[in-house]
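Practice problem: MATE family efflux transporter
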Amino acid sequence: MIAFSLPMLLGSFLQTAYSFVNAIWVGQYLGTSALAAVTVSFPIVFVLFAIGMGLTLATNILVSQSYGARRMDELRKAVDSSTVLMVSLGIVFTILGELFAPSVLRAMDTPPEILDASIHYLRIFLLSLPLGFSLFLIRSLLQGVGDSKTPLYFQFGSVLLAAALDPVLMFGWLGFPKLGLNGTAWATVFSQLVSLTALITYLRAKKVPVAPSWPRFDHLGPITWKTLRIGLPSAVQQSLVSIGMVFVTGIVNGFGEVSTAAFGAASRIDQIAFLPAMTFGMAISTLAGQNLGAGRQDRIREIFLWGCLFSGGITLIITAVTVSVPGALLRIFVTDTAVIEPGIAYLRIVGACYLFFALVFVSNGIINGAGHTMTTTVISLISLWVIRVPGAYWLSRRMESVKGVWYAIALSFAVSLTASMAYYFSGRWKRSAGKKPPKGPPAPDAREAFGHSTGEA
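Answer key — structure tokens:
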């Protein structure tokens, strides 16, 4: 679990580090309004990306189970099916996003003073959707067969390139036009294009079995339906979570630009706090899928216990730091005292509940690895649409303060944990999960399957 999770965790930290650098450039040099414009745009982008991430979870489940059971022909079918799905969705969502971005931002009650900047920034950033979807897919394919290192190397190059381009395009250095906030969006688009091209070229040159290629359309029907059957619940789950964040952001927007900027700055700290949980959740899902595919249900309890120890332990350390010095963390991104004050309240209320979020991803990882993605979808919907969104509206109005939103977010974490753990300990996820693999030679090590050491890149 450690060996598999560590590269993914490093990759997540890299991506978050870029997000931090980006926020520092924007918040410190372009001001509160620019940071608020990014904040209101982010939930919309994440709604669309969430659908892609949900479908790639199905890819990871199918690939890991096929790999664990040594069904390599089914693995190839999953690659072809997912490639067609993800590329098509990326293009469709980009077109829809470009058309409806202004309407959605207005519906979110975006403050008028940042509306135009938010529309321009969002429309540029949406161009990265097909590229981002493709990168999600390849990462999921490689992780499904046990290779979490290769995506890390190319992600590192992408982050470095984007971080270098940010100030160049924002401030017009080296003869480039001065694009301001839009420069950060163009930096993301260009860096992802370079990273995707390099990664596909590398995988095809090494003849990696899960390298995307022109699909064989004659076998796409059944496996595409299976991918959708497993992936759609997760895609719905993640997209509805993201839509819920759109609603929550809209409620925060109602308290003004300062509250929106505070929410955006504090959310950057959330990104760091959530990384271990989300990374171990992905690793647990893959390990559970591989072992269930191999008929080894006896290993699941061990995966669960170590997942709780690692994810929970790291998150507790982050919680202690966040709750102890919230002001110092927020000043990394903003200097306005009016913004820092509500941000401190957020981190002390929500930060105290980070552990709930961490443990949810452990139990959800096993449930998803068994293919029961509909269950985790229902849990997320209850937490979000029964607790967080209505609670944020009611508490913020009752308290006449944006702090009501912070309390609703914390409460939703507790509800998610209770529901997820109850389902895990009920054992219902074991149904139809433990099919024994067909007779045959042992599944090859990931490095043998690739024909090279995964550390060469």
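Discussion: The chain has a mean pLDDT of 80. Students who identified this feature from the tokens alone can consider the problem solved.
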